[in-house]
Amino acid sequence: MSRIRIAFERLHQQGRKALIPFITAGDPDPQATVPLMHGLVAGGADIIELGVPFSDPMADGPTIQRASERALKWGISLRTVLGIAHQFRKDDPHTPVVLMGYANPIEAMGVDAFCKSARESGVDGVLVVDYPPEEARDFALKVRAHGIDPIFLLAPTSAESRYRDVAEVGSGYIYYVSLKGVTGAGHLDVSDVAARIPRIRAQVGMPVGVGFGIRDAATAKQLAAIADAVVIGSRIVEEIENSPREQAVARVTEFLRGIREALDETVGKGRGGS
């Protein structure tokens, strides 16, 4: 059983919701990422999404674009990110790590080589933004053969046929993009999310995490009452960007702890996710 499934089953039994923070590997520098990952766990993270920096992101807003630019200046590559995951895994055998990025670096490495290296590095899931499910069946089969969950996006504009495609090829959880826009946008409609999540969950048969536009504990708490997981990225990257280097881990941990406390106030409320 994958670490992702174990995490969601444990949380489901406890009546709790998953907290999934995102950071960009190599931001603000390569040596900072593993301590930041451990800080996220200390703050209450259940799963970590580790961004693979890319020069031409299509879904990332300005905050995460800047994080990628900072990381790329250090020469951070997909191989570097896998090395970071491997280093983190040496001290944390339990917290699932999901790589989030774009197809180009994976295809440049070669899918087979990527799958082997990712498994050896302790990666548990991979979310490739520009791999739609109907075009990623071979990729999904290969990563699943290596014990890695292929995770896919759904959006407010997704047709129900896309739900079925994701159910067929995806595993781990669904990442529901809560708004029409890029990461960090500020026009999240909680009522619209509440209307869509039950339909998605019923068709895909796996936990649903909600991300994009979640910036504070109050919104996270509202969504935790609806979804199985809350994903927070841009707000954490802002904390890193605006903190002195030596204070970044402490500030990120403190921020995430507040989100964790808000989510835990929803214990026993709403539906679980499996």
How does this model look, in words?
This protein is α/β, with parallel strands linked by helices and 274 residues long. It has a single domain (3-264), classed as Aldolase class I (TIM Barrel), CATH 3.20.20.70. Helix content is 48%, strand content 14%. The protein is built from twelve helices and eight strands. It has an eight-stranded parallel β-barrel with strand order 1-2-3-4-5-6-7-8, surrounded by nine helices. β1 (18-24), α2 and β2 form a beta-alpha-beta unit. α2 (33-42) crosses α4 (78-91) and α2 (33-42) packs parallel to α12. Residues 181-185 and 270-274 have low confidence and may be disordered.
Question: What can be said about this structure in brief?
Answer:
The chain is α/β, with parallel strands linked by helices.
The total beta strand count reads 8
Classified in CATH, the superfamily is Aldolase class I
Q: Trace the largest sheet across and list its strands.
A: 1-2-3-4-5-6-7-8
CATH architecture grouping: Alpha-Beta Barrel
Radius of gyration: 17 Å
Q: Helix- and strand-based class? A: alpha/beta
Chart the SSEs and their pairings.
Elements: H1 3-14, E1 18-24, H2 33-42, E2 48-51, H3 62-73, H4 78-91, E3 97-101, H5 103-109, H6 111-120, E4 125-128, H7 137-145, E5 149-154, H8 160-169, E6 174-177, H9 190-204, E7 208-211, H10 217-224, E8 229-232, H11 234-241, H12 248-264
Parallel strand pairs: 1-2, 1-8, 2-3, 3-4, 4-5, 5-6, 6-7, 7-8
